[in-house]
Design brief:
With about 1100 residues, this protein is mainly α. Among the domains are: about 70 residues, no CATH class; about 150 residues, no CATH class; about 150 residues, no CATH class. The radius of gyration is 49 Å and the shape is elongated. It holds the Pfam family SYMPK_PTA1_N. It is found in: Nucleus.
Amino acid sequence: MEDSRRSAAAQFYMDDVGVKEKPNYNKVVSLLNEATMCPDPQIKTELLTRVKDLVLNKESTLLKNFIDEILAFQTDRNAEVRKFVVAFIEDAIKKDCEILPQVIVNIQMLLEDRTPQVQKRVVQCITQLYRIVLMWLARASTISDEMQMVWSVTTNMKGFIINMVDSENDGLRTQIVKFLEMLVLLQTYPEADSLRRNNDFSLEDIPLTLKVARRRKLEEEAMTVFDLMIKFHGSHHISSANLMACMGSLTTIAKLRPLFMGKVVAALETLHMNLPPTLSTSQVNSVRKHLKMQLLNLLRHPASSEYHTNITTLLTDLGATTHEVMKAFPKLDEIKKRTKKSNSDVPSKKVRLEEPQPISESAIDITEAFIIERLSPELAANLVITGMASLPDTMPAVFSATYTPIAAAGTQGQIKHVARLLATQLNAAGLGPGASIAKSQKIQVRSSLIEDEDEESAPATVASIPIDDGMDEDVNASKVPAKPLKLEMFSLTQDVRESLQVSAIQRVLKAEKSAITGGVSNVRTKLISTIASSFGEKVRSAILEFILADLKNQINLALSWAYEEYSFLQGFTKRAPNQLEENLNFDKHYDNYVCTLINAVINNKEMKDREAILKRVCLEVPLITDDITALLKEICTKEVFGLNIIYNLVLMRPPKQLAFLSILLENTSHQDSDIREAAINHVVELYSKDDMKSHIEEHAIFYFVFLKAPTPPKILFGVERGRPQVSAVWTDDAVKACLYLYLALLPIKQELIHELARVYIQTVADVKRTILRVVENPVRTMGMDSPELLKLVEECPKGSETLVTRLIHILTDKSAPSMELVARVRELYHTRVSDVRFLIPVLNGLTKNEIIAALPKLIKLNPIVVKEVFNRLLGSSNEVGAYSSPITPSELLIALHTIDPTKCELKTVIKATSLCFSDKQAYTQEVLAVVMQHLMEVTPLPTLLMRTVIQALSLYPRLIGFVMNILQRLILKQVWRQKKVWEGFIKCCQRAQPHSYQVLLQLPAQQLIDVFREAPDMKKPLLDHIMEFTENQRAHIPQNIMDILLGPSSPVHNEFHIKEEPLSPPQAPELTIDMKEEAEDIPRIFSEPAPPGLD
């Protein structure tokens, strides 16, 4: 079953290979599957690199099985993956050039990639590939159709790259210069003294019998490319990187092809005197340094002997020392040897294109001689005076940085150098006596080239085409005049005519490969599109069916047809009279055709690159009509990629910009989250453009103001909005629909926050709740340092208090409040809005005294809110735990105990202290010990002291010793003077048995009687405890205490119910205390637990 799912090639491979080879095959399959499913481009590239290593290095027999699968990644969204595919193709061709027919079209497609980095990598690849293709053709015994196709595509790519020399990308231009260098070297002949490279290949290696690549044509092309490089080298707006790259390439060409030495030296001379004005000072210095290095390299070459004067003069101007110049001079023996060889050489090969070289040189030489004859001191002075009128007021920084004094001014050599520089510039401008001579010579050379081409091709043609003996008879027979054809003799019916037309056009459609091979694909496209727009419905249908069958590859033909229809629509092309009679609705052809293309893409869910194809159709058709706009608007409500296309149309189609922008704006309130978010993202990107900002803002406010209405408007509903059912009341979705775009713009234009507050005041309760819920993200993005947010907090319009509070909560939820925010909230609280809830978000920014002052109001709030307050103050929640609180846990609990009873009920304080005790992380036994010790020193003793002591003992039984110490100190403070605290004291003694017996024995007699009156069950256990003492120990107990324990007033023993273990404290609700005023003052001693609550 698994084998049946494999391709035929894969199955054949699996049958053919041995068992040992299958693991690599399976590994490649596994890696390709992982790469296909992997979303991470880096991991995907690593997986593909492993595949490349397997199929190219470890087991090259796998290459042909998996090359198509690897090439499929050339459409990947990530540029790095596409660059990998280019590198793979390059390495694969170097491994096996027989796969060229299979991959050459893929390289051509990648060359048209819109990412400059990918294009740069493709140009690097083609720089290597072009040489391989020529070698492949040169070594072939016969040229097949596949080889012709490869050469045709390669030639097209060559032209495409040459046309890209003016690309906007600097790095791409540099790589194109390297490509042009390769072309010139590959398509010219080497000289006897040319430097040689390993495995070199040049024009002399191409057979004369090779018809697809003629030597003469290739050499002509090389000359044209070299002239293009010279022109690019002298461009006024060339960058420093491109200039130095081009300089290096020209020097390399001169060294490897001395034929061009003169032109290269002349180009460097021109550059020296005409540096591009766009270069900075540092760039000029770099260029001059590079120019000096290249001139020294040329000087070392024996072929430069004729130009030593020019080169040495330039080097002197560039600051080269005499030692540097002399060191670079070639040896005298080499110069003599070359001179002797050039004089004795007899051309043994085919005459080359050497005529154009002397043309340019002789033109410069003629103009130079003309100038030298007339360059007198008086003329030089007049030229200087005339030129001074064009000088700037201040010396340019570039000139001052690059100027070097003339070492040999006035000498004959310097005069000749100046004359040559002037001659070079005049000749480049087409002026001077040498220019007209050069033009006439070029015409003569061109005609001689044509004659040479004819002479070269004629013998080859005769030798390669066999002559039939009967050919002369056929030729003579063909000269017999034919009988004139009369159409009336062959009248055809309409159906037959249409059938013949369809058959003819189908043959043209199927001849695509032949057209590409012949280099006439553009002509074929023009022919088909003209026929499609001019002929009847059946022909149109046949062509349309052909296009739609493979729209991805026929997109150029589809667009060409659209332009033909547009020409008819606008009247640029006139229809034939019979067309006007046959079809009265031809004005609708353009609309119908483009809509058909768009619908075909939309309805074909299985089409790969649907978005890219539809995007290209919409961006490249000449006109977007109302019908097309309506169709695109409908797409946007169903598919996200429709919005992406509309976004591009907004940018690329200014005449209908507002119409497309309106489509995006309408979908910002769509019910579908994917469509809505895509629309909002595009609108936010467009909001940065000044010409669209006002329209976007007006739309956002227009929808936002709907919230003031008692019911939602009907504009929010409809199938196109994703809400087919109209709602009569404000629902959550309807409210959000009005808010989405407004809140997305809020972080960008923060002034909108004030309009938010004004509208919020006038909305109904349901709308208010939704606003408070969805405002979080934009407000968090704005941040608490936002001037507009601070201004809103400061002003706080009446009725917007809940909104402002919510905003402050959001800002301080995960970070400490800023000083500016705290200051404004504090001012608002003290002057205008006394609602303590305003303080909650900024509690951690307030001082300790401010927090303590606000506690009575804070703990009266909802228990959930109080819990949040304590979380903020104690740092209990994860969000606020990162910053410190102005009040410690012990200070907070102490402050709760000392709250004025007139400001807050005791029950409320008890609930607040219970919340504190529930946070065991903050209130450890050490913290509670500090609290109890501090409360002991408060005068009068806090009412809830003993309750806190009891709860602390219940939570941490180890505090029993500390609690006993507190009880003893309370006796010293005469705790019985405060009734509620005294009751708590007794309760604590009850629960702390038997540890509290020693404390009871320290009480005065009267107070001990009170204890037994309140807790009679403690008397017998205490007596039993004393009876265990020794006589000596009992002697230390006061007699009156013993009388109380042993006297007749003692209760009968069987009336006591003694428990051996201390009781656990009751729950918080049981520990309530009646509040009554205590008139007596109690001296300051150690504090103790609060009494139990009211019974």
